[in-house]
Each structure stands twice: as structure tokens, then as C-alpha cells.
Amino acid sequence: MTSHQTTCTLSFHGAAANSCPHSLSWVRCPRLATAPDFGDATSNNEKCTILDDDHPERHPHSRDLSEVLLYPSSGVVNLCTATTTTAHCNSTPLTCVTRTLVTNTEANKSGNEGEKKVLARGEAAEDAAALRSITAIAWVDCGGGDSEDDANSFGIVAAFSDGTVTSWRWTYDRHGDFHGWKEYVLIGNDPSSSSTIIHQHESILTLQESIADVSAVSLNPSSWLVGTASSSGILLSLSHVSPNDDKQMIHTVWTRQIGTHSTSSIHITHINHECFIFAGSASPRHNKVWVYTLSYSSSNADRIDTTISRQDSKPSWVVLPTLIVEEPHYHGCLLGHQDWITCFAWLDDIHPSKCDNGRGKEALLASSGHDAKIRLWKFTSVTNEVMNASLNGQEATNDNDGETIDVDSGNDDEDEANIDDLEEEEGEARLIIHHSSSNAYGHTAVSLEALLIGHEEAVTSLSWRNTTTNPSAKPCLLSSSMDRTILLWMEEDYEQDQITSGVWVPISRVGSAGGILGGSIGASLMGFVDATFSPGADRIVGHGYGGSLHFWSVVANEENPAEDEDVEKYRKEDVLLSARWLADPCITGHFRQVQDLAWDPDGEYLLTVGSDQTARLWAEVPTSGSSCRWMEVGRPQVHGYDMTSIVCVGGQDNDDGEPRHRFVSGADEKVLRVFDAPVSTLRLLSSLKRLRKPAVREGPDESKDVSWRVERAFLPSLGLSNKATADTEHESSKYAGPTNDDEFVNSLNTIESKHSHEFKLPSERDLGVTTLWPETRKLFGHDSELVSLDAYRAPVGSNHPTLVASSCKARNDVASAAIRLWNVKLGKCVGVLKGGHRSTASTLSFSKDGKYLASSGKDRRICVWRRHGVDSSDGNDNLTLYELSAATESAHKRIVWSVHFCPAYSNILASGSRDGFVKVWRVSESDDGSETKMEEITCFEPSSKAEKKSEPVTAVAFAERVLTSKKPGDLTSFAILGIGTESGHIEVWSIPILTCHTTPDSEKQIVPTLLQSMTGDNSHFYTVNKIAWRPLVNDDSNGTDTVELSLASCGQDCGVRIFHFTII
């Protein structure tokens, strides 16, 4: 066994946000809560750290707050922080994911329900929710509590498309007990539950439908009130976490159904030991805002007297030693909305000075939905004396108040008939809420304050500006809509006295009114599904349909007033009234599962393809200091078919081989497509390299002839092929590769920007429109949809050509199961490998020297093809370069998902299978070379198998570097093997490789050693589809005991992850 120590950090996680409303939250929390955590590691040789570029020594008890954006992707909650990028001259904020939280729950199932749905080709992005994803999130902050522990407790609640509700709590206290993030399941299947976790329900309840919205508040640091809205109605849950005598955390959950009508939104807020619960109906017409209250007290001594609000005395809902929660009470409904009510926003205490004058406390509730109208409801809380005086004998109370009423009861036909009249009567009390005797205010009157009309389509979210730092600031409301716009609303002032007029007007508009929000992807054309202010109200984020997150930063108007008498007015003016909003770099990613990935041969960038029909280019962008963050900087291909595979074939820009920056992609079609980078992409990559390393100029490859390249490409309407914008008169010769025409030999000298302000990172629209690569060739030959690709890149001076191997779907058809070999430069098939497989060859792998090609698939057979010829250009299309030299029947008991040759040892092959085993093989030849055989040298199971029957292995990959033994005189080398599993876990193992210096008897003692295990919050939520190690071009670790490596992975959770390893 090795004694190497491994340190791992999560460098990058890229994934689009789920296209669901209520999926954004921008909050303040301690910086440490957003740092990557590898505390789930299991190997004794692992050393796991928390990465924080700015404060590496941050103590857990530090209350150093940072602004954190939360958004879900598939079943993952992403925590994002902003840093400053040097790619813009004006220090533009760059927001990226710094930590992920992955649920440990399993899908709710009842019979055949809850099983994965197979998506048909072309289904919309939101149909990915059939794979079980998060549909809504809510932030819970206990910072308003009285104790120090209150300020150190907060968390997240997430609701899923299968009805699961789970939470993550972050806690640490002044006594030194540091807990960090821990998941507690409220509703659903928790495989990790044990005797220390207790769930108590009023009745056994498991939701089977998607949850539309979730809201939560903290009653105290240990108890959270959570409400969910779905087609089954409103469900309240009380989640209580406390330690027992053995200091084990006990989780107790109570549930309460308070409505059975279809509900599309819910919002909970609490004031003075009383919670307001607002729920929006989802009826075909005449929708209502249901209003509930729920009272609670913090101890038995302070038990609430509810005799005023209830005529009957009923027992409390939940009684705990330090908390008593009463039954929820229904007070009535607010009428006016004509379509589904999908969003709420609550603003508390809008006029603090009035409260001091005895005029009561005022708050605003904004509601909106599919009718595109925003209603502002004013909640005025006053004492009983003031309320009686204001009524003047008028009966304004609702008949339902004071009773516990089910929303199913009662006849609202008369109310619905008068909705049109209510539209005109703004300011009249619509509802009177009677509070418990413990409340400082006896009554709350609800009236319609304003009706905001400005959006043309459904309003998807509402958010109030945070005025904590400036209580005198006027309320400002932000709204997003499917009409592709985000509006900022503010109450208009009278010109003379600056007294509010009650008229709300839009003061700013961001987005793309009437235009397209993104690029050519259909999912980007439908507007915003969510938006919110940053905690400091100086930034805005908009969640575009399709998953992209758009950011804008406020830029104050720097113009000085013309007259001296206007100076005071200018200083008092709200900055948002005259400010401009500038777009910042977006968070983007695949919004359906990522099928394959490939590194640039020099490791400069990463290419990924997915079922969202796009190919995306990821590169490192320099940020403040010396750090870099990965982000999407290009979208080379936007296709009409789900993409399945990609491989980079470019090596050098000369006449002997394939040019650099060339890739081949496959999709659910029979054609391979070849793409070459345009000049605009080379300019972008060159600028990023210069910004990362200012002292380094372009390498030799960037200074080669680019006369044959075009400036950029475009995708014609109803087309599947990216076309060049340059003159296509000599298209065929130009696209074949570099020519002898040296007119633009030094053209890359003009690519490099001389000034940093000339460079700008691409926006979402740029990614989908102006970063496309031109398609230069099509390769025909397969009979069905493509499945797998791999490439052998011939080194400079080699007699062998660069080749691409491809396979397609085969249904027990030997002919369709054939593997084809392509010479991309010549644009022809140079070999058809038959007789190896009887069904689909699901994976292919060339050895580093190109001598062998391994294939495997559904027939559980591993085949090794050996090279025996040299390519020629004699026009013989039937030329076969490889022949079947070895095959192992039933190499595994189930389908073989992945094979990969070791780059350091071309005869070492690894395979991973659905049977849960990883096998390592040695390929050897007889002395005369007439016979080739495969020999199994070791077999092991993933460590993440735990108590499961098996852990299917879906991806394997060897690193280029090898480790050496630390024992004196031991010449054994250790190959580094990464594996990915069906459950989303990734592990790194060291495999002893026996050389000629070892004796044959030692082969029986080959024992792989686990170096690192990425499980829990650092793993994928679904199956890992592909992993690949970053190529080592300039390996600075040679001659030292330290190995620096990067591993990229992609999976069915729509995510792309990059891990950085340091092995000592």
C-alpha cells in the first residue's frame, strides 16, 4: 500500500439553475459556510482542507458575513459568491459557485410512482424535473434572535418535484461546538435515518406531486416552521432539532394540512410571536390570497391566551419544553386576481416614524401571478382603541374571523361576483385580522394600496429592496416576468413637498424587452422565471428560463446638479432613481444531463456536450489576486439533436497533422461533425492567457498561420450546421486545414488586444450567437445514432495519422455494431472494425501510442484491436488499420460502461461495469507478435458501496502522471485511476504497476489503495457519465515529491465539476 497523502479542493461546479420560480435567494451568511468541504473523505491517507482564497485561516466562530447567492440545479443547492475579475477594466463582479449541498434523500415511490421518466427527444427544459429535481428553496435566518446562538444558526429548505422536503442547517455556538452543514429531512425517504432521528407526523403523509413553492421561518434556533404549496393544498411542518443526553441531535417533525385546494405559492413571515401565512390559489378563475395566522410562545410561562381570536378552546398544535405552537387560524381571503397567484413579497414596517406617533404599524404585501398585475396590500396594525375609533360604527370585519375554518367550506360566489367592483375601491379595508392578546397590536386592517400594471405576460417573482442600512429609503419593488423584462417600481413623489402620491411607477427596466434573452437555444427565449435584489441592493440577478443567471450592478449617476439650490435635493435623491444598471458576467451551464467531455490537448480549456443540444467551452478567468475561476466563455455548437459525444483531435498547426482547436462531435444522428475554432475564439483564449500570466506571450502554436480560419460563425434559421461569416467561394479548400497562403501569417498579432479595456467576457447572448465555431466537415457512414468517440493524436514526425474511432447504436446487429476509423484531415473513413461486438459498443479508448484500441459495451465483451498498417492516401476506402487481436468474453457480469488505457503504460487497461467492479488488465504479446492476450491483474469495488449490494461503475480514467513508492529500493510505480459511479460519487485510487524489476510472484499481491473519495456534498446528484484528467503540458512537478492534477467530471445532474488534487 502507498503512504501518499492527498489534498482535494472543488475548483468548479457549472450547472444551469432549474427553470422553476422560487429558486433564487440572495442572503448574507458567514464566509466559512460557502467554502468547499471535504469532510466526508474516508481514506486514512487523505488530507482534506477548506478552500478560501481571501481568508484561508478563517475561524468557524467568525461572523464575517458575505453575500451568498443560492440556486438549485437538479438536486443540488449551489452557494455562490462574487469576486472581482481582472478580465474587465472596471473590476466587474464575477459570481461563481464555491460550494454545493447534495441531498441524501431518495425518491418517493409508491408502486410504480416516482420512477425515472424517460424523456422524449425535444421535450422542454422543465421536463427534466421528471428526473427528480429541486423546485423551490427558502432561506431561514435566526440572526434576529436574542441570544448569541441565534446569530450563529441559519439554513436552507428545499422542496422537490416528487414531494420531498429537506433542510440543511448550519450551526455553531459560543461553547465551541461546531456542526457545519447537516441535512435533516422533513418529508421523504431518508436512507441515513437511524434511531437518533425521529419523525413524528399527525398521520403518515408522503406527497407524490411536485411542490410549487416553499417558505420557512425560524421560531427559535431549534425550531423552524415550513410551509409548502402544491396541488394538494397547503402543508405546514414544524421541524425541531435538539440534542439528547448523549449530545446526539434528535430531529422531530410535526405536520398539519390546512387546505386542500390547489395552491401555487406560499409566504410565511412572523411578527411579535405570531406568523402570517399567505397562500395563493391556482384556480381557473377568481383566485384568492388566503390569510392565516399562527401564534407561538417561547415557554410554558408565557403561554398565549387565544380566547380573543377563538370562540372555542382547542389544544395547542405542538408543545415543547421551550416552545408552544398554537393551531393555525384562517381569517379570510383577498380577492382581485383573475389568474394563478404565483408570488408574494412582504415588506415590514414601511413607516417607522408613524408607529412612534401612535398611528400604528404599516407593512406591504405584494402579490402577483399569471394575470400580469401586481397588487400591493397595506397591512395596518393598530390597538383596539384606535381600531374602534377608525371604524366609526362601520362593519368592516369579515365573518370568518375568529374561527378555525377550512378553505374548502363556505360559498364565495358572492365575493367572486363583486371582484370587478373591488378593483375600484382602493384604500377600503378588505379584511380585519384579530390578534391574540399577547400581540402588541390588537387588530390589523388589510386594504388594497395600489395596482401596478406594466408587464405584458405572467409575473414570476417579486422582491423588495433591503433598507436595513438605510431605514429612511423609500420602498422599491422588483418584479420579473415572462415578457423578458425585470422592472423596478417606486412610489412617485409630489414635486413640491416630496410627499408620496400613492402612484407607483416603474423607474428602471432591465432585460430585453421585445427581444431575445439568450442565443439560439429555444429555452432562452421565454423570459425570466425569478429575480431578486442582492442584500446590499446594489446588484440584481435574473433567472432566465433555461437556467442562465443574469447579473446587473448599479452605477450611480455621477453628474452634478446644475444649480446650487439643487445640491441638497440631489443628495437626498434615491440613487436608484437616476442610476444605470450594467450587465455582469452570467452563470451558465447545461440545463439537461451532460453526456461527454474532452480536454483541449494542451489543457487550455474544457469542452462538454449534453442533452440540451449544445457544446460548451469552459476556461479559467483570472480574478482578484492570483486566483482563477472557471466559467463558460464559448458555445461552439448549438444543435438540433441531443448531443452524445465529443473528442478533441487538433494537435499542431502544420501540414503534417490535424490543426489545433479542432473537435469532432456526435449526436442522436448518423453524422459526425467537425468544427474548427474561429479567429474570434483564438482572440478570446489569447486574452485570457495573457491576463492569467501577463509575462507570458502567445506560445508557438498561437503564432501559426490562421489564414484559413474565419472570424466567426453563425447558425442559419432552421439549420443544423454552423456556417462561416467569411467568403465561402473556396470553402472546401479553406476548411480542409492550413494552406500555403501566407497573407495572414502574422494575423494573430492583431488578435491580441493592446489595452485591457478592449476585452470583455461574453454575455449569455454572445455565447449563443457570436461564439459559434464553423462546421468544416461532415463524416457519413454509420447506420444509426452515434454513441461514443475517441481519438489518437499522432505526435509530430509520426508515420501514423491522427485517427478518430466512432461507434453507434446497435440492436443485436453485428453490422451496426462495427467501429469506424476516420482520418478527419482527409475527411474519409479509413477502417471498419467488424466481428468484435454483437451489440452497441458503448465506450472506446486508444492507447497513448496508438498501438491498441479497446472497446466494450452491452455484450459484456472487451475487445482489443491492434494496429498493423499505415495510412496512405491511395484512395483505398477499404483500408483497415486495425484488426481484432484479443477479446475477453464476459469480462464483467453486467454491461461494461467504460474502458481507458493508462497514458504512462500503454498496455495497462481499466474497465468499469454495472456489476460494481473495476478491473485492471495487462495486454501482452507473444515474442513473435502473432498472439495478443488480456490478463486481469486486479479487481476491486468502490469504497462508496457501503451496505449496498453493488455500486455500478460508469466511468474510469487514468491520469498521465504516476506515483513512485516511498520505500527505499522499491521500484513499484503506482498509476492514478479515477472512477465515477451511478450514485454520483467519484473516487481516486492508486494501482500498483509491476515492471520488469518486479518478480512474477508479486503480481498476486497487487492491492489498489484509495487516495480520495468525493462523496456527500462534493459528489454529483445523479450518475457520473464521464471523467477525464487535465493534460499535463508544462509539468512543474517533475523531479519533486508533489503531484498536481485536475480531474473533470460530468453527469446526469446537468453538472460539470473540476477537482484539483495535490498528492504528496
End-to-end span in angstroms? 14 Å
Strand content: 35-45%
What is the residue-mean pLDDT, rounded to a whole number?
A: 79
Q: Give the overall silhouette.
A: elongated
Helix content: under 10%
Low-confidence stretches: 38-62, 110-129, 144-151, 300-312, 393-424, 513-520, 567-572, 697-703, 726-757, 996-1003
From the alpha carbons, calculate the radius of gyration and give it in angstroms.
32 Å
Number of strands: 61
Q: State the helix count.
A: 11
Main β-sheet: number of strands, strand sense, barrel status? Answer: 6 strands, antiparallel
Derived structural class: mainly beta
Organism: Cyclotella cryptica
Biased composition (Acidic residues): 398-416
Pathway: tRNA modification; 5-methoxycarbonylmethyl-2-thiouridine-tRNA biosynthesis
WD repeats: 452-489, 587-618, 834-865, 889-931
List the topology elements:
Layout: E1 6-14, E2 25-30, E3 65-73, E4 76-84, E5 93-102, E6 134-141, H1 148-151, E7 153-160, E8 165-172, E9 178-187, E10 211-220, E11 223-230, E12 233-243, E13 249-259, E14 263-270, E15 274-281, E16 288-297, E17 318-320, E18 323-325, E19 329-335, E20 341-347, H2 352-356, E21 361-369, E22 373-382, H3 384-391, H4 413-417, H5 419-422, E23 429-434, E24 443-453, E25 459-464, E26 476-481, E27 485-493, E28 500-511, E29 528-533, E30 539-544, E31 549-555, H6 567-572, H7 575-578, E32 580-587, E33 594-599, E34 606-610, E35 614-622, E36 628-638, E37 643-648, E38 662-667, E39 672-676, H8 679-692, E40 713-714, E41 723-724, H9 731-735, H10 748-751, H11 764-769, E42 775-779, E43 786-792, E44 803-808, E45 819-823, E46 828-833, E47 841-846, E48 852-857, E49 862-867, E50 882-888, E51 896-901, E52 908-913, E53 918-925, E54 932-940, E55 953-964, E56 973-981, E57 986-993, E58 1009-1014, E59 1024-1029, E60 1043-1051, E61 1056-1063
Antiparallel strand pairs: 1-61, 2-3, 3-4, 4-5, 6-7, 7-8, 8-9, 10-11, 11-12, 12-13, 14-15, 15-16, 16-18, 16-19, 17-18, 20-21, 21-22, 22-24, 23-24, 25-26, 26-27, 27-28, 29-30, 30-31, 31-32, 33-34, 34-35, 35-36, 37-38, 38-39, 39-42, 40-41, 43-44, 44-45, 45-46, 47-48, 48-49, 49-50, 51-52, 52-53, ...
Subcellular location: Cytoplasm; Nucleus
Keywords: Cytoplasm, Nucleus, Repeat, tRNA processing, WD repeat
Main location: cytoplasm
